[in-house]
Amino acid sequence: MSSDSSKKRKPKVIRTDGGLQEGKRGKADADQDVRYYSEECEVDLRDPIKDYELYRETCQELQRLMAEIQELKSRGIKDNASEIDERRIQSCVHFMTLKKLNRLAHIRLKKGRDQTHEAKQKVDAYHLQLQNLLYEVMHLQKEITKCLEFKSKHEEIELVSLEEFYKEAPAEISRPAITLSEPHQQTLARLDWELEQRKRLAEKYKECLTSKEKILKEIEVKKEYLSSLQPRLNSIMQASLPVQEYLFMPFDQAHKQYETARHLPPPLYVLFVQASAYGQACDKKLVVAIEGSVEEAKALYKPPEDSQDDESDSDAEEEQTTKRRRPTLGVQLDDKRKEMLKRHPLSVTVDLKCKDENVLHLTFYYLMNLNVMTVKAKVTTAVEMTTAISAGDLLSPDSLLNCLYPGDHGRKTPNPANQFQFDKVGILTLSDYVTELGHPYVWVQKLGGLHFPKDQPQVCHTSSPPVSPRTSSWALGVTADNSLSASHMELTVKLLRTRLQSRLALHKQFASLGRHISVPWLLLIPTLDSPRAASGGLHGKSPQLEALWAVGDISSLPCSAKLQAAVVLNPGYSTLPPVFSLCLNWKGERTSSNDDNIRAMESEVNVNYKELWGPKPGYQLLTNQLQRLCMVLDVYLETEPHDPSVEGPKEFPQEKMCLRLVRGPMRLKPFKFNYPQGFFSHR
């Protein structure tokens, strides 16, 4: 190949969508010649694999020819020029073959790219169609879901039942022939009937509103009349106060009491209502009143108000608190105890008057945090009573109401929850505070409508059915049972009046016995100590161990015989009789343990006390027992045989008439007195 041909530059071929374009030959030429290669027709007819094998063979042949040309040139023989030219020609032919194969490869590549592009466009078109279809499916599914979840407003309307619909609705609305077989038409018909009914009700509502406005106008007119009437009524009430006082009809005072009662806690309110009702219906001598500060009671219901001054002065308060010393633990506990034992500002007083004008004053309190009621008692006598040494604690407020019901000493709280509250503030027992707060008797809780479970399970009796316990605290709202208070009111009032009368009767007996000539009691002091302190084996002789007890010396005449008597008085005197234990100091010490006759004397007053009861209610039982004790003491001493070793007359001559002096192997004496015959015999 010549050097001129090798130096020629072929024009550039530009590939576009329309095919191959020849590059610009000059700047002036604007048109581009589109060349068409003959190989384009051969691409579809030729096998690419065979072209690849031809390419390999051509490359190998070129390598061989180049190697031969190199070898011939290296020999440097002039005769070899023709051979070199021949091999050059062959090499050029092979180069032409390679160019052709190159063009075929480029054409195949372009066709493959075009086919790939077309296939990609088809795939993109199909993918776009698929996305459109998926979006339409999703949209249709949402619409279906909306349709399925659609709730019509008629579903919220409470329609009349089908039976009532077909019974009351007219035929032109109900259309049974159609609606019975088609639920949709049935629902439409029911809605039409509901609309008709609502139209009627709307008209009726308008009529009612019109009548209501008329009535409201009439009420306003009457209110104006009543508001103008109130001052006149007040002036009339003020003018009638002297008449009310003269006729003992304190209407104004009762009205004020009921206004104050609105601020009582529920237990005190129940007590006030039930006691007032019982006093009006059954006991005219029972007076109920409310005492205390109404303003403090109102303050309990008001929430604490936040003042603006607190915010403005907060910095100053913080500085003051830092300077102050913190309270000690003991002061904090004292404050907590005071808060725990805080009473309600209002209290209820109940005055029980007796026939002899003696009055028992009862003041009931409510402990807000403990949810229990307490009571304080005080006795006012019509005549000033002489204070006898032997009277002791008979009228003491601390012991006057003890054991009004069996076992109710009022020393501990009946609310089981209080013990846990006491543990938090270091209170051991409520008995340390009863002098200040009052006694929390169980009957006091029942009068207030409060019921608490007992410490021990007990059998329910028909006379007192169990009541469900209500032990909510004051802060949470206390509920009190009116029926429980009403069921215990009458019996409790009777027991209180009986207790007052029996204690007053006992007081009079002790006062008279202290100065009586025939019964010279040297010492008789009732206390509230346990009878275990008394000698003579008093244990178990009284149902209540905590009782009044007394010790005294009895002698019929100034002599060597002295009878010492220990007496146990139950708080429920005279329903429960006194119990005597005797010790005779005469020729030695004689008691029930070493002398059968002493035991018989005790039995005469302890066992046969019903003969000594006297007229009901038997308040003179103690005096009668003492009188009988003096009589049997005389019998005991007079029936004793005379000691022949002692000179002179018999110390106790027989004055009592006895049928037999002794009887039986125990040589018992005749202590039974037969009235009105006036003699003594054996039982």
Describe the structure.
With 683 residues, the protein is an alpha+beta fold. The protein folds into four domains: 112 residues; 67 residues; 207 residues, no CATH class; 135 residues, no CATH class. Helices cover 48% and strands 11% of the residues. It is built from 21 helices and twelve strands. Strands 3-4-5-6 form a four-stranded antiparallel beta sheet. Helix 3 packs antiparallel against helix 4 and helix 11 packs across helix 19. The N terminus is likely disordered. It is found in: Nucleus. Pfam families: FmiP_Thoc5. Belongs to the THOC5 family. One of its GO terms (cellular component) is THO complex part of transcription export complex. One of its GO terms (biological process) is mRNA export from nucleus.
Count of alpha and pi helical runs? 21
Helix content: 40-55%
> Termini separation (Å)?
177 Å
Q: What class, by secondary structure content?
A: alpha+beta
Q: Please indicate the count of domains.
A: 4
Q: Note the overall shape.
A: elongated
Oligomeric status: single chain
Number of strands: 12
Chain-wise SSE layout:
Blueprint: H1 3-7, E1 13-16, E2 19-22, H2 39-43, H3 48-75, H4 80-149, H5 162-168, H6 171-174, H7 176-179, H8 183-239, H9 241-247, H10 251-261, H11 266-281, E3 286-292, H12 294-301, H13 308-312, H14 314-323, H15 329-340, E4 346-353, E5 359-367, E6 372-380, H16 417-425, H17 434-437, H18 442-447, H19 482-515, E7 548-554, E8 562-569, E9 579-585, E10 589-591, H20 596-606, H21 621-638, E11 672-674, E12 679-681
Antiparallel strand pairs: 1-2, 3-4, 4-5, 5-6, 7-8, 8-9, 9-10, 11-12
Helix pairs in contact: 3-4, 11-19, 20-21
